[in-house]
Write a structure and sequence with these properties.
With about 290 residues, the chain is an all-alpha fold. Helices cover about 75% and strands about 5% of the residues. The chain has helices spanning about 1-35, 40-60, 65-85, 95-115, 140-160, 165-175, 175-180, 185-210, 220-235, 240-260, 265-275, and strands spanning about 130-135, 135-140. It has a two-stranded antiparallel ribbon. Strand 1 and strand 2 form a beta hairpin. The longest helix is centred in the N-terminal third of the chain and has 33 residues, at about 1-35.
Amino acid sequence: MLSDNIVQYLLSGLTIGSIYALIALGFNIIYNTTGIINFAQGEFMMLGGMFMVAFINIFHLPIFAGALLSITLVIIIGFLIERIAIRPVKDASVVSLIITTIGISIFIKACTAFVSKDSFTYPPFPGPDNIRIFNASLSVQSLWIMGVACLIMVGLSLFFRFTLLGKAMRACSINREAAHIVGIDVNRMSFLSFGLSALMGAVAGVMITPTTQVSWNRGTELGLKGFCAVILGGLGSGPGAVLGGICLGILETVGNIVLSGYKDAIAFSIMLIIICVRPRGLIGRG
């Protein structure tokens, strides 16, 4: 029985950890390209879920068509944020740019709350209700979450490793001035990084809403958890974001069993310990 419970906790931790990993990757994409920590990342996730709710519950679109449209709209919003709010002040200090992203987050939440302050959900993605794994139960939506997260992570790794565009974005993360000198359009890379980061958040929102619901203030909570995953794995490290997200999901799930009701405190306590003991994270750069 104990082994069954352990498997159940691990599966639950992997599910939520996959979402944290996607959000953490979004943080790292923008940080590596621009040096900004985008605290509106959680709002990308929230918008992905909200658009999906509208397309499924109001317009009654097929679930995959709704997902595609929702992700596309959030990517467009990411592009607009970079062009309207970030680029005009790109020469400001990093702290000023981070404060700008906080303002963007507040603005998006306020606009969403103006439309509705209720919580919403929609039916899970197609498949059997539950799957048994070593006497533990896993919902089909959890399988979709982990499967899609794995595909995104592998695709992102291949993109940065083998495509010219991905290599150009990596060059910006190493040295923006040198990248500009050799002919890389740094502004374009910044523009694309916000779109790619919005993609990460939108996918997370679309996948997690059937299991946890979505509301106007949901993005901030999950965004901060994603930031905890970034700090745990190592700011700027793609593999670190994935490792940090998975570890945080498992630690949070198991810790919540021991310290019921202190789920959020576990994540932020881990972040504070990592900052004090190992500031570069588990596998981040020094």
